[in-house]
Task: inverse folding
């Protein structure tokens, strides 16, 4: 069931948005460690979260319990770990290389296996092992949204959107690079806190569908994040919110 009233945080621009999410993510991570003894943090790629990651790795670094944090990814482009398009590489450069998170607690999606399916199966084993040894869902998941409404690497009309059992799948997407590995909705929507970051005028049109009444989740996959399980908050800057009706914002 989709939550009828999305929780929206409106920010003036990407900088203000990054600061607001950094505060909220820090609080959620601290709370997870206080109540459960560890925190799982799931990262995404793209440009939008860079400012957030930079803050988590600098001004917020000493407020975050990195020693008890386990890092995962919502999706990965199937390119070498050293490739500029690799999501884990970006997160390492901007965030993880700057914080005291133990290396064995950083779980990148493997891209050196023979296929995206093999990588997905391997990562699913990693996730099942981790989630069976403590809280059974992720604590904090950071997601973005593409201009046509995709999230993670779940694109419009993808067969992966119909997945009900597998947590990780290989996908061929209409974007570069095409070969990717992505977590699926049955797993993403179990997370205790989902933070969806949306910035820029090019996202405004899709966002009206994603946050509208009865969205078509096959056409606008990010709308599927609006389940009533766990907390999902939408962090939107003014340009991305430009076409949202007033009743969605209130
Ligand atoms: C990826 C992402 C993807 C991203 C959106 C938004 O690996 O590309 O995880 O889902 O969040 O495409 O990307 P931007 O933030 O660059 O607009």
Result:
């Amino acid at each position: 069931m989709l939550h009828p009233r999305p929780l929206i945080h409106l920010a003036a621009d990407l900088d203000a948005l990054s600061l607001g999410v950094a505060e909220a993510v820090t609080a959620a991570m601290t709370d997870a460690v206080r109540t459960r003894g560890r925190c799982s943090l799931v990262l995404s790629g793209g440009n939008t979260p860079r400012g957030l990651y930079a803050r988590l790795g600098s001004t917020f670094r000493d407020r975050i319990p990195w020693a008890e944090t386990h890092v995962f990814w919502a999706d990965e482009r199937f390119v070498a770990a050293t490739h500029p398009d690799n999501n884990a590489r970006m997160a390492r450069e901007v965030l993880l290389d700057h914080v005291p998170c133990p290396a064995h607690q950083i779980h990148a999606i493997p891209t050196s296996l023979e296929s995206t399916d093999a990588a997905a199966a391997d990562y699913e084993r990693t996730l099942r092992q981790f989630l069976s040894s403590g809280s059974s869902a992720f604590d904090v998941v950071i997601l973005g949204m593409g201009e046509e409404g995709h999230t993670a690497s779940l694109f419009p009309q993808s067969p992966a959107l119909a997945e009900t059992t597998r947590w990780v799948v290989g996908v061929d997407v209409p974007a570069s690079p095409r070969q990717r590995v992505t977590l699926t909705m049955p797993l993403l929507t179990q997370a205790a806190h989902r933070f969806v970051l949306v910035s820029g005028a090019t996202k405004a049109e899709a966002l009206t569908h994603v946050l509208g009444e009865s969205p078509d989740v096959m056409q606008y996959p990010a709308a599927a994040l609006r389940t009533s399980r766990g907390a999902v908050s939408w962090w939107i800057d003014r340009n991305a919110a430009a076409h949202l009706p007033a009743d969605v914002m209130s």
Observations:
- The chain has a mean pLDDT of 96.
- The radius of gyration is 17 Å.
- The longest strand covers residues 231-237.
- Strands lie at 7-11, 39-43, 69-73, 75-77, 140-144, 168-172, 179-183, 193-198, 231-237.
